[in-house]
Every structure is written in C-alpha cells, then in structure tokens.
Amino acid sequence: MEILTVTNLSKSFGKVKAVQNLSFSVPKGSIMGILGPNGSGKSTTLGILLNVTHGYQGSFSWNLNKENSNARQNIGALLETPNFYPYLTGAKNLEIVAEIKGASSSDIKTALEFTGMKEHAKRKYQNYSLGMKQRLAIASAMLGDPEVMILDEPTNGLDPEGIAEIRQMIIELGDKGKTILLASHLLDEVEKVCSHLIVLDKGEKLYEGPINALTTSDTIVEINADNPEKLKSLLEDFNGIKSIKKESGKFIVQLGDRSYLKDLSKHLNDQELTITHFSEVKKSLEEEFLNIIKRHKS
Ligand SMILES: Nc1ncnc2c1ncn2[C@@H]1O[C@H](COP(=O)(O)OP(=O)(O)OP(=O)(O)O)[C@@H](O)[C@H]1O
How far apart are CA 139 and CA 119, in angstroms? Predict the structure, then answer.
C-alpha cells in the first residue's frame, strides 16, 4: 500500500526549474531514499510535501492511518536548518515542539532515550556538538510518534562515528514500522539505509524503484581461458548472453537471467579450452547509478 502519491509536481524559482513534472509513490513502511546531487530539487520536494513550500503545480496525497491527523502531527521532519532556541536546553526545546505537536512528556522521554540524548538533555542547545544537534533534531521529529519521518541530509557535516550513529537510528526507526523519506546526495548512505529510492537530477526523476531491483537485475560473470579466441566464439554462440566485453584481459559477460549460469558453464566445457577464471561479479549500486545518469545524458 502507498502512503504517499506524488503526481506531476513542478516548482520553479524564477527561471530555475527546481522540480520538473515529478511523480513517484512511497510504499508504506519503506525507507525511501531521494538521491541526487546538490541543487537537484530534494529539499524543494520535501518542502512541498510538508506544506512549507508553496506555489507549485501538480499534486500529492498522503494516505495516513491516524484519523483526523494533520500532517504536522503525523509527519515528523528534520530539515536542513533546525529551528531550536540556542539558549534553551535540549529538553526545553523538545517541550516546546511537543506543545506544538500535542505530544506527551512520555514521548519526550522515549525520544531522548532512543537518540541517546537523555544524558545531554539539561545542557543548552548552543553547547551541543553537531552530532548532538542532529540527534536532538531526530528526537524532535519523533515526537508524537508520527507514521512518517522526513529527513533532509541528516548526516551532513558529521564525523564518521556520528554518521554511523544516525544511520543506525534511521534503520531502527524503519524497523519500528515508520515510513521514512531520506534525502541524501550520498549513494553510499542510500544504499546502506534505504529499501527504495528515487534518483533526481535537475529536478527530474531518473529512476524509481526498490534498491535491490537496481543491483540484481542482471547477472555479470567474469570469464577467462587459456584460449581467449575459442572462448570468445563459444560465448558468442551461447543464447542468453546480453553483452560481452573485454576488460583487463577478461571477458565480462552479462546474462539476462541468473539461471543461465549453469548452462553457460556446461557450454564452455570444451576440449580445446581450459577455463582459468569464472566468477560472478556483484554489481555495485554505484555502477548502476552511473549508468542511469549516463542514459539520461545520452
Ligand atoms: N528559495 C529559493 N529561491 C531561489 N532558488 C531556490 C530556492 N530554493 C531552491 N532554489 C533552487 O532550486 C534548485 C533546487 O534546490 P534544492 O534545495 O531543492 O535542491 P537539493 O537537491 O535539496 O540541494 P541541496 O542538498 O543543495 O539543498 C536549486 O537550483 C536551488 O538553487
């Protein structure tokens, strides 16, 4: 079931087309990565979905469970510039947000514990490290136990340990059943955390789907033999090969289906040939991502 459906969304700032005819849907319970370089329209899209950016074309609809819920209560957000009072403590800042969202003090306690901010709750926000500020922002987004959380570049500027902590928290929030929209310019982040992704470039959608559909669509095998010419002709004879190329002395073979692997190795069992190398290569998301961008530009 879809928790969000976005249809033909467009938004311009003067001559800049920040979002162009964007449609996508978000399955309930998924962690949806919105991946794109800086300026690709991620924040603008999230701003529209949160009703803070206006003057757009197209539409979107949330399919939230809680009855009579408005977006403010049922969608927790961490945006790029958090709105906390520097001279107040973390706890006090959360109390203010809880008041606005109608969240309880037990929500505050849960959020502080989950984010590891309980021990820092009595310190002033202005004295927090960047990592603590981000954790407080996640705590704030959790208040009211929303069904959906929207996180815009939540690990920006953090050190590797801080990045790992925040990513782990996002995965745990997903395990709790929350639907999460995560904007990121980091492929590695999206790969580690998300179940689904859309790829944006210059406000346009280049890809939408589950992460694993990107990485497991075709099977790639590296093959070498003592008689490369013979190997080449045998490969060319085999039905089910989508493409053959030679890279660093090895043949890289793309199979339409993984079930062809067995037949291929039988087919290569030839008296004139000794196979010296035969291994399946796991395609990285990065490679697929680059292919998507390349296809878009050509
Ligand atoms: N308030 C604004 N006024 C004018 N231009 C804007 C405004 N907000 C965004 N833009 C422009 O719209 C385009 C998309 O920006 P957006 O912030 O949505 O991208 P992004 O993918 O979130 O990038 P970043 O990670 O850098 O925020 C950019 O060219 C940006 O300069």
Answer: 13
**ipTM of predicted complex:** 0.95
- Say whether both 103 and 163 belong to one domain: yes
Q: Are 235 and 109 contained in the same domain?
A: no
Number of compact structural domains in the chain: 2
Give the pLDDT band of residue 41 (cuts 50, 70, 90). Answer: very high
User: Is 59 in the same domain as 135?
Assistant: yes
What residues form DSSP beta bridges with 255?
219, 241
Expressed in angstroms and rounded, the spacing between residue 16 Cα and the centre of ligand 1 is 9
- Do residues 158 and 131 make contact, with C-beta atoms less than 8 angstroms apart? yes
Which residues' Cβ are closer than 6 Å to ligand 1? 13, 16, 18, 36, 38-44, 153, 185
Residues spanned by the domain of 254 = 219-282
pLDDT in tens, 106-150: 999 999 999 999 999 999 999 999 999 999 999 999 999 999 999
pLDDT per residue as tens digits for the range 147-198: 999 999 999 889 999 999 999 999 999 999 999 999 998 888 998 899 999 9
Q: Which of 166, 191, 214 is the last residue of a domain?
A: 214
In total, the chain counts a number of residues equal to 298
Out of 10, 12, 13, mutate this one to test ligand 1's pocket (max ligand atoms within 8 Å of CB): namely 13
Please indicate, yes or no, if residue 102 is contained in any of the structural domains: yes
Give residue-wise pLDDT tens across range 47-63.
999 998 999 999 999 99
| Residues 101, 121: Cα–Cα separation, whole Å | 19
242 with 164, same domain: the answer is no
The pair phi, psi for residue 74, each rounded to 5°, is -105, 0
> For atom 29 of ligand 1, which residue has the closest CA?
39
